[in-house]
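Hey, does this match?
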Amino acid sequence: MNIPIEYINKSKYLLVKLSGAWTKDNMFKALEGIKIEADKHDKKLILFDTLNLSPPANEMIRFETGVKIAETFSGLYKIAALAQPGHITRFAETVAQNRGSIFQVFDSETDALNWLLS
């Protein structure tokens, strides 16, 4: 099953709205599609809006997602993720950062955009 994804090409960044179930397979397919869409629009700044994405079933899925973010986007893209405060553990963020990604999770869209566009 794939998760619904909406792409909005903003002037300086790509907004990606994700919803549905955060599973390993769903996120791996989503991340590959997001990279294709970002490259198509020549965007290196990406905002993941995960406010309507359910949290993963376990921490291993967060870990694997962090690894996949790093593998897919390396240090060439800057990615902010907007998430529900109660869903944020920073585990996927730390895993991705430790592998060279420029990735940070926020619970405020204003903070996410300030960081992303700075």
About this structure: The chain has a mean pLDDT of 97. The domain at 5-117 is CATH 3.30.750.24 (Transcription Regulator spoIIAA). The chain has four helices and five strands. The beta strands are 5-9, 14-20, 45-53, 78-82, 102-106.
